[in-house]
Design goal:
heterodimer, A: 214 residues, alpha/beta, Rossmann fold, Arc Repressor Mutant, subunit A, 2 domains, 11 helices, B: 388 residues, alpha+beta, Single alpha-helices involved in coiled-coils or other helix-helix interfaces, Heat Shock Protein 90, five-stranded mixed beta sheet, 5 strands, 70% helix, 9% strand, elongated
């Protein structure tokens, strides 16, 4: 796939190019500051954009703003946002448009190359990749009865669903059959009082909306 | 009539007190003269500052008395008498307050007991006239209230004489402020030192140690690479775990120093994020804090940590469903108020979180006030001085 990267740190930028190339992806453009991002995306129309949140000139949340702007300009553009730290608020802002093809991960996750590439592919396929840290924050906050009523296994399933994993991945991660996962998911949705949903982006949004209600 | 007599009686007691001071004044004047003479003999120099202190105490007593009688406090302004003997003597002699006190002492020695003497005939005449006028004819007493006027007179004269010059007052206020600032600055330096040590310890014991362990595993993996690929694989996996943990710890340390979201979004944005993540329904009223220049980073961080702590406590202990955060930009300060409609009864002194909050705010010369009556609501108000 063709990817545009936005990252101001040269070390990380090179690493990212190396990583993507090694997986057979092509890095078509590299932006090293906030204002460069949108023109690069408009020019190259890549399959995916991998953006760092904090970039010059302000070293604030330029990357995040660029991601939001890019999604407005190029609807449905798969965007993977990386950051040195994660904020629930940012996740909410990124997911606000309701469209799929969105990822928000800690930079640390890049180290787990396979998982990172998997997340990128998920995003390109229109799915979601939400960092476990964000999900953890959401889960610990929502400590009311319905979530308490879940079994530990069901909580794990809910966690993985919120991260944007599909049933097959959940089954693999938890070392159970896909049918078992489907059953767990059915139970989770019933206990939380959510209408059953397919395994796409809509399901992630439903789960997140539930957790976010606070 | 009884009321009138009672009031006149009370006023007379005040006058007698004044007379007492004025009689004591003779003694003080004596001591002052003695001290002044003794100073000439150098040996007696130590007596002078002490007698000035004694006069200050007397004047202070009278000031409080005037303040209590008129309901309007009389400010005090002296140069502090400390240091070695000659510095004290110099201050005692140089302080204009000393001469003001002496002037009052001299004047009061006369009018203090004179007013008390005046009260005596007033009593005699008053009891007769008002006894008939007020006691029998039920009219307003006219003579006995004059005693209160005598006390008023004493208070008015004393105030005029004891009021420090505006300049002295300003100097005293400045001196007070300097003392206060020195204290808070010392506190700030200490807090800063403690903070640096904490960060150093966190980095040293946590992140650095992890990186060493990581490097070690990578080294071992390289050695094992050819002979035992499985072992090398396991070592590399461990190394990656260590790297991730080091990163997690670093993030934690960074958050403790200065939450990154403050940099990204400013105080209001960061507080809104806190509110959204608190698990409570929190309304944030920022009253234009975002317009214009930002507060200094330390002030923003302190405000952020205070609000985070307050909201955490509200979510954990108060049982409240909703809370409100108010940020107000004042001319020379930032005001933060966090209020929850919970059950209240929080101990203002207790809790390490609250203590940390107080320390952080005090380091910036700010104030924390907390009210939490049983049954709620709990209100935490913080003021942080800052230049915008």
């Amino acid at each position: 796939m063709r990817v545009v990267i936005a990252e101001d740190n040269a070390l990380l930028r090179e690493g990212m190019v190396l990583l993507l190339n090694s997986a057979g992806h092509e890095v078509v453009a590299v932006a090293s500051s906030g204002p460069e991002v949108l023109p690069a995306l408009l020019e190259h129309r890549p399959d995916a954009a991998v953006l760092d949140v904090r970039m010059p000139p302000g070293f604030r949340d330029e990357g995040l703003r660029a991601a939001l702007a890019a999604r407005r300009e190029i609807p449905g553009l798969p965007v993977l946002v990386l950051s040195q730290y994660v904020e629930e608020t940012y996740a909410t802002e990124l997911l606000a448009d309701g469209a799929g093809g969105l990822g928000y991960l800690l930079k640390d996750r890049v180290g787990r190359v396979e998982e990172f590439l998997d997340a990128l592919e998920r995003v390109v396929a229109g799915g979601t990749a939400l960092d476990p840290e964000v999900v953890k924050e959401l889960m610990t906050r929502r400590r009311d009865d319905p979530v308490d009523a879940l079994t530990p296994r069901e909580r794990e399933v809910l966690h993985l669903m919120a991260e944007g994993r599909d049933n097959a991945t959940i089954a693999r991660t938890l070392v159970v059959s896909e049918r078992a996962v489907s059953k767990h998911i059915g139970n989770v949705f019933a206990k939380l009082g959510l209408p059953p949903s397919d395994s796409g982006h809509r399901r992630v949004l439903a789960v997140l909306a539930y957790l976010n209600k606070g | 009539m009884r009321e009138t007599v009672w009031r006149a009686g009370r006023a007379s007691v005040e006058l007698l007190r004044g007379a007492g001071i004025s009689l004591a004044s003779y003694l003080f004047i004596g001591v002052a003269v003695f001290a002044a003479v003794a100073m000439l003999t150098v040996v007696g120099a130590g007596v002078l500052p002490e007698s000035v202190l004694l006069v200050r105490k007397t004047a202070g007593y009278k000031r409080r008395w005037v303040g209590a009688w008129t309901g309007e406090p009389v400010p005090e302004a002296y140069q502090p008498l400390n240091g070695e003997v000659f510095a004290r003597v110099r201050t005692a002699v140089g302080d204009p307050g000393t001469y003001r006190d002496l002037r009052w002492l001299g004047a009061h020695a006369v009018y203090g007991w004179l007013l008390a003497c005046c009260a005596m005939p007033v009593w005699v005449i008053g009891l007769m006239v008002d006894g008939v006028w007020c006691g029998l004819l039920k009219q307003r007493a006219v003579v006995l209230p004059l005693i209160e006027r005598l006390v008023d007179l004493d208070a008015a004269w004393s105030r005029a004489l004891l009021l420090p010059s505006p300049e002295a007052l300003r100097t005293a206020r400045l001196a007070e402020r300097v003392a206060e600032l020195s204290e808070t600055r010392a506190g700030a330096v200490a807090a800063h030192g403690a903070e640096l040590r904490r960060i150093e310890r966190d980095l040293h014991d946590g992140t650095q140690a992890r990186l060493v362990a990581l490097s070690m595993r990578v080294g071992l993996a390289r050695r094992a690479y050819d002979k035992d690929p499985d072992a090398a694989h396991k070592l590399l996996e461990d190394a990656q775990d260590q790297a991730e943990e080091a990163l997690t710890e670093l993030r934690h340390v960074v958050r403790g120093i200065h939450p990154p979201i403050l940099t990204d979004r400013g105080l209001v944005g960061a507080v809104r994020a806190l509110a959204a993540g608190s698990g409570l329904q929190v309304s944030v009223d920022d009253d234009g804090v975002e317009d214009g220049p930002r507060a200094p980073a330390a002030v923003e961080a302190a405000a952020y940590f205070v609000i985070a702590e307050a909201l955490t406590n509200a979510a954990k202990h108060s049982g409240a469903e909703r809370a409100s955060v108010e940020l107000v930009r004042r001319k020379d300060r930032l005001r933060v108020a966090v209020r929850d409609e919970g059950r209240g009864g929080a101990d203002p002194a207790g809790g390490s979180g609250l203590l940390g909050m107080r320390r952080r705010v005090a380091a910036l010369d700010g104030t924390v006030e907390m009210t939490s009556p049983a049954g709620g609501p709990t209100l935490i108000e913080v003021e942080l001085p800052c230049v915008w």
